Amino acid sequence: MTDAPVSLPLVFDEPRRRKPPRHLADLSPDERHDAVVGLGEPAYRGRQLSTHYFSRLVDDPAQMTDLPAAARGRLVEGLLPTLLTPLRTMEADRGTTRKTLWRLFDGALVESVLMRYPGRVTMCVSSQAGCGMACPFCATGQAGLQRNMSAAEIVEQVLAGSRALQRGEVPGGTGRVSNVVFMGMGEPLANYKAVMTAVRRLTDRPPDGLGMSARGVTVSTVGLVPRMHQLADENIPVTLALSLHAPDDELRDELVPVNTRWKVAETVDAAWQYAARTRRRVSIEYAMMRGINDQAWRADLLGDLLRSYGDWGWVHVNLIPLNPTPGSRWTASDPADETEFVRRLEAKGVPTTVRDTRGQEIDGACGQLAAAPT
Q: Is position 334 within any domain?
């Protein structure tokens, strides 16, 4: 049914490459104070820079008028270097969905997607350039891993979206990003340290951070079980999304190669433990693929597996109509099969929704991000 299993490089630590330049968003408030002192300025300049970056969303040094002109260039160069250069922005849904292709300092390419809905704005951010998880139905996974991103490179995607909203570049008036989903390029928990630093910068109170609610942040994973347990110990109430895609090991070994290391039962158990520890409902992500994982019996198997942990509302299933990628033999499920899959899960008492796919026509939907330069 599928190609031979892929040999999977499990990347937990950053590959040995030249690191991005130091940035304010990489540093804690105390570290920022030390950094500005190291640049020959008083420590309080760190808070001034933080106010400009996180609270005022300033990216033009000329607007930082409370900083002495003589020191401004040195501070900006030392703590606010350019991390992401936009190469292309594509729009869909009358401009309310925007996919941006970014070039990083070393030439690596990543993509982020802004999605405006009534009452909220969600940023889908990348955490790695490429991905090492090798899921065969995902364009990003097929590209392989180039490198981990720094915390500041992750944060800057959100700040760029916030600036676009502030400047009225997105239809619907000015606004701020309310939700961030780590569902762009990469496996977030394989870049654990940078991702958690980024989450803290997004949720720290201004001007130390962007001031978002942790409940508006979703961190996805294909099932790196040790990191899932570690995330539960962070005491940050983000939403955990587990990309499961199959309820049985035989199929999941092929669809999600990391399953050859941590099987379905162990992975789902780690998700349940996260929910029990944090009291935050876990989202089970399930890409619906025609004739592959959308059989009614698999819906029953998934429902029984999730209900075996009780019915206290610990889980929600998010079905994702598979988005096409160039040359792929994987296709979306027949609507009738999708409907029956939902019915079977709900019959077992498992809350289930079908994701509202955004940005498919600009290759900005789930599984489509490939950061093609042209």
A: yes
